[in-house]
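Input for the complex:
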Amino acid sequence: MMPLLTTKGLSRNFGGLRAVDGVDFALMPGEIRAVIGPNGAGKTTFVSLVSGRIQPSSGMIVFDGADITGLPAYIRVRQGIAYTFQITSVFANLSAYDNVALPVQRTLSDGRSKGAVRTGVMAALERTGLADRAHMPAGQLSYGHQRLLEVAMGLALKPRLLILDEPTQGLADSEIDNFITLVREIAKNATVLLIEHNMPVVMQLADRITVFNAGKILAEDTPEAIRENAAVQEAYLGTAP
Amino acid sequence: MSEASPAKAYTLHLGVIALLFVLSFLLPEYYHGLLARIMVLAVFAMGYNMLFGYVGLLSLGHAMFFAAGLYGAGLAVIQLGWSVPLAFLGGVACGAVLALVIGLLALRTTGVAFMIVTMMFAQVFYLLILYFATWTGGDQGMVVPQPARVLSLGATSLELTNPTVRYMTALGLFSIVLLITSAIVRSRYGRVLVAIRENEERTKMLGYDTFSNKLAAVVVSGTICAASGAAYALLFGYVGSSFASVQYSILPLLWVLLGGAATTLGPLIGTLFMYYVIDITSGYTSAYLLIVGIALILLVLFFPKGILGSIRQRWLGWLP
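Predicted:
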């Protein structure tokens, strides 16, 4: 099977710092892949390169067999790469409905009918459990609900690759359980790339785990193997157990 | 913007149009003429509001779009002998083309740089008008001759110098632009414009080409402002370079801020308010600009969202 996403020698420098350093990465369709690593390991920079928010210093990104390295972010989104932000950036002054309507109205193939937008928006809001808050301004939602709204916006883009950047940060335990169910459901139709610090979430969700350290891939394996990997433990915990 | 209460908004807009229609028969002559002028200038403010209120792009060069319409229509009548409707369309087309070119160049910048670039382009436009004085009349301007300001509709001909015809034409233009802008801001495109204003980076990450959307907004805004300028030339018969000066770039900003940015009727309220404050205070003192200035400062301090913006925030959430 051909990978959905491949990067070859992908690098990005910020001044003298090599935030991402020659990363070769491949992601198979249908996979849930977790990316973990200590703070400053280059995880967010890596997914920002994939989504096109920042340009690489060198290297190549291939999505679904085509080189997308030079494409602007909005075209990558149209090709099916959706990115949900680490720092919640929903449109605070717009209603939850309007927040989701923005991605829905763009992805509609028949761009005319008003009913289609409403149906699409309410479907995305219902999947994330926000339907009864559709007309609240997004800025007045609780933090957990804003994170879910962020996911609903990503879902509404009908992505083939959904990149979730620390989606459970700041969520309560009960909300995290719902979130895990939601991601499993999303993964039925999409490939998921998940940056996550919460190890129980990672262990439950991921098919495979990629560990970043100092801009490079340190290890890549199944959750069980990563758990036993001494190098990972050293990088992550600072000491060998 | 939201799905809520479109019916209320349409009723309000139609009510305002009906009120302005009735006022035509009630107002004394002086105020009748003043209101006609205010309606034309409110169109200018509505065009400005399209870009400033909804997309959040602060231009300090919109006088050039107004003047493009003004000179486009005026020169077409005076130098080329075009009929009134053709000259109007010519003026509007000048504004649309100018807005497209300026948009392509100025939108490469954002924020303060965008303000400065638009202001510089407007200054270039102003100086070009003075430079080509042979055709434009330089700082003297030009008078559109009365015989040319006739609108021929088949057998009947309407003289635009007639106060009632002038008022009704101004009201017609105002109504069309009001209904068009309120339809735009309620549309999906309007939703994207507001999203760009709120967070452009995020809008890109939802797959929108924000540059093209902003460019379209500049063209719509410039075209509306040019329509106002073209109507001004044909209705009031004067085409002058002062309309291209920086003062006329700042005035629409003030009108919109006063009335309420990103409200459909704010531009009218702001223009009306400013004109009447000037009108009333200048009757009492020669230092009327001082009073206008104080009124503006008080408004910005206590009602930063403008008149309608504050009303919407405090009492009427559905206000369009």
